[in-house]
Amino acid sequence: MKVELVQWPSDEQRLAQLRRDAVPRLILVPEGLVPPLSTDVLEDWIRLPADDDDIRARVRVLSDRAAGIEDARVPELDENGLLRVSGRWVSLPPVEHRLMIVLLDRYRAVVSREALARAGWPDGIPGRNVLDVHIVRLRRRLAPLGLSIQTVRSRGYLLEEGHVVPVAN
Amino acid sequence: MKVELVQWPSDEQRLAQLRRDAVPRLILVPEGLVPPLSTDVLEDWIRLPADDDDIRARVRVLSDRAAGIEDARVPELDENGLLRVSGRWVSLPPVEHRLMIVLLDRYRAVVSREALARAGWPDGIPGRNVLDVHIVRLRRRLAPLGLSIQTVRSRGYLLEEGHVVPVAN
DNA sequence: TGCGACGCTTCACGGCGACGAAACAACGGC
DNA sequence: GCCGTTGTTTCGTCGCCGTGAAGCGTCGCA
Fold it and tell me: What are phi and psi of B90, to 5 degrees?
């Protein structure tokens, strides 16, 4: 993941934005100025003037950390129906658990309604509307984890990271 | 928490030990040498010669991070039924003690009701509802320690740090 | 352009089972 | 005796799941 270089204190506003967006960043602090401190593991700073290799070293570490956090963002489903993503979790009831297995198996790809129906109800689907209802319920349960199910009309559904709606101030 | 200062590369062995012990540490790197890099959030380095304030700043951040991790550390249960977490403690009666052993063994993972029943009553469970009642009592005892037992419906229970529930409007 | 068919979303409802919690009684150590 | 622990009963609550129905946009077709 790309690491942003931030001039201090001239880039203060940009720094605030990068912090909100959880973007890894290295703050360049001129001689004589106090660095802005944070325990955020995606933030680091370096005193100027600095060796290019030192800057590269700190950028490298930040980038590796971001990659590690990124890995933690891919959802994991255990055999008990517990779905974990980036530290948080929800428990999925039996039907939604079975649906989630195939959705995760084809993460970011389309899964047909038939495939979902077979996964959710191996003994045959009870009603014509059941799948739709369970998709709605699954959507609501996934939202707090930052996951969303997209509809691909007349093709099926697709699981992906939720879209972060830009907050209008 | 105390942050260790490490001379590089002369303190290399000590550094390895500190890493194993998860002790926060700041590595002092003389001019011209390549710093040892790690994504460990409890490790940082600084190029010499450095301003005392800069060293203090980095030590401060490491210390704050260690404090944050300290708060989240896993609870410990001794053979007398004393449960300690972040300085505070409670004493657990026999049944709850045995339940707690398996809950801690699978910290943050689901423990089935059957497993809990076997742990709590090795000679067979007396009644149908006993486990539920003891879970309730355990919950009340754990709450002051910031621990909570989550229900995973029809699958079991799960022990974790208590949730600070963000109040919705 | 207007209309209906279709696909999808969402809600409200009822049945069922799992779980929560209070209240009470029995037991035992200090 | 007093208090903490334990088991039991009982009742209330909540989650899960299927069903019916209303709403809405898209597409095909006359």
Answer: -140, 160
Cβ atoms of A97 and A77 closer than 8 Å: yes
Burial level of B40, CB count in 10 A (0-12/13-18/19+)? middle
A 71-130 residues with CB < 8 A to B = 78, 80-82, 91, 93-94
Residue of A61, A64, A91 with shortest CB distance to B152: A91
Query: Per residue of chain B (169 residues), what is the pLDDT tens digit?
Result: 899 999 999 999 999 999 999 999 999 999 999 999 999 999 999 999 999 999 999 999 999 999 888 776 789 999 999 999 888 899 999 999 999 999 999 999 999 999 999 999 999 888 889 999 999 999 999 999 999 999 999 999 999 998 654 333 3
Instruction: Give the 3-state secondary structure of residue B5.
Output: strand
Q: Which residues fall within 8 angstroms of residue B70, CB to CB, at 6 or more apart? A: B1, B86
**How far is it, in rounded angstroms, from Cα B88 to Cα B81?**
14
